[in-house]
Amino acid sequence: MLYIVAIFSLNRFFLWHPIEEIMASNKQTTSAERWTYNFYFAGQNAVYFIIEAVWAIYFVHHLSMDPSKVVLVVLVVRLFDAVNDPILGVLMQRVRINKWGKYKFWMNLTAVLVPITTFTMFTIPQDGSMVVKTLYLVITYVAWDISYSMSEIPAFSVATSMTTNEEERTLVLSLTQIGSMLGTVFGVGIMLIWGGDEVSEISWGYVRLVVAIIAVACMIPQAFFVKERHHVVEEQPVSFIDMLKQIPRNGQHLLIMALYASQAFLNAANTFGSFVADGVLMNRYFAEIAAIFTLFGICLLGGYATRIVKKLGKKRFLEYSMLATIGLSIPAFFIPKSFPIVLVAFLGLRIATLVVTSILRPMFTADCIEYGQYKLGIRNEAASYAIQTFFNKTGDAIGHALALWILASVGWIEGVDPQAQSPGTLDALWIWYLILPIIMAAIMYIGPKMGYKITEDKVANWLKENEKHDENRQDAAMDRDNADIRDVTEELVKT
Fold this sequence. Notes:
The chain is mostly helical.
């Protein structure tokens, strides 16, 4: 309980205090709106974290399913999910339920679907045949994965319609990462309550109920507070094919998102981070300390992102953070492992600077949406955030594969305690652990510096131009409606 209270205190101090100062005027969103938007991501990420933590235990140990079949199903679903995201984003862009808005409809729908599909994942009959279990796994896992993707894309997209104030939009988008981290905290807390070594003995009925309740409690409240205020009036309906064609034409967005696939290097390091903590630093809890530094970075830098971006700009904020990551990594090559506290301090601060990439990612996408509307004439919010999700998931998949390759290449022996691995294996794994985040930081420094041309001044001008263009479209639409009414009235009079 003290752990959760501490997190809320950090969230309040680092996030809401600067909000009150920065947004004393010209606010378009309310405090309740921002809080519930934040918690939507918390519920979403808590579900994702818990499922990632226990799915193998449930399917393999509890249901006694063949591990190779389970891994194959999960892999196929993930590949389908990555390819499916851009198409799903375009579909969401096309469908609009007037009562709820373009994105709120999907958010409200998935606030119910995510808990339901999560609950059903843990209802596979234990006494069923292997064919029944496998079929049930495929159906429930695909349903959960699709509902999760359906929640992720509109949740990011709605931020662009909540406000036309660029500074406020930067703040709202920073909430996505702070809420996600808060969800991870919920997930870690639940896993600590269940217990590490005893997790296989827990009641799965209890798991599905608790996870579903957390999802509902966090994801439902936004339905009553989050508002869509800014929409583009289309001069004529844009076809599904035309929207798909616009995706590759927004070169700035594809460039920055492709660079974000370099997170695969960080994901790989995180995958075997616990092995490094236990085998190299001789204390598995050092991995927990690293997670605390991640939380600290998200809360501090995320809370003050609006101020920093206003002063430096997103691109320079990213560049300075990546230089800090590289600078904090270099001493770790020379600090003796007999000083683990000093090493963990440097590596923890390195992680705190790396999280800037996660904070800025939805902001870059939002800027590219304005760029796309200004240059191409089509506003593609959902498809743009679907592309963001695609590269994010691609980076995750590549990172896991890279981690497995590294473990094999250094001679890691499965089933052997990390501290019992050979010194050569542990030394090689340690070098990889230090190098991989440096590679990501170098890519994220050099890539945007050379090819990403969007600046805050340009975005501010595009926002104004796009808003004027939207107003002209609305006026033109009203004129057409009035002309139609006059024509109908004249026909009635003649009749």
